[in-house]
Amino acid sequence: GEDRRLGLPERLRLAAHALEPHAPTKELSSATSLVERGSHGASHGAGAGAAGVLDADGQELLEARADAARGFDEEEAKLTGMLKLLRKRVKDLQADLAERQPSFADRIRQLAEMNSTVVVAERAGARDDQMMTSLKKKCDLMADASEKLGKLRLQASDLI
């Protein structure tokens, strides 16, 4: 019924007007008084049918504004509740982080110590590899020298 009497642009304008943040109570009371005056004045004259339609339209307008305001208030309450939940969740997460911060710091310190131990072990391994190479060369040199010394002694003993 209401949709047929008001065109879509008119309904949209009324809905948008109902959501505007300016003082709706003053406008509602003035709209109500206009509707009341129209219905009282028209009931005495020939336009009683028009006044009834005007009165019904005014009532529907007031109901539509009230519904829009209720819908807005419900949505606002829902969003406010969600915002409170999210703020509580953030607060809980911050408290949890603050509580775990010392253990995180200890773990980071342990990891740094392990990394330095690995670096020291790698350096020691590289140094040991260099020493092994050097000692192997020295052993090879000593073995060659010992072999040559043995040959020279044999030659010297043959000469005597």
Automatic annotation (TrEMBL):
Residues 16-25 have a biased composition (Basic and acidic residues). Residues 16-50 are annotated as: Disordered. The lineage of its organism: Eukaryota, Sar, Alveolata, Dinophyceae, Gonyaulacales. This is Uncharacterized protein.
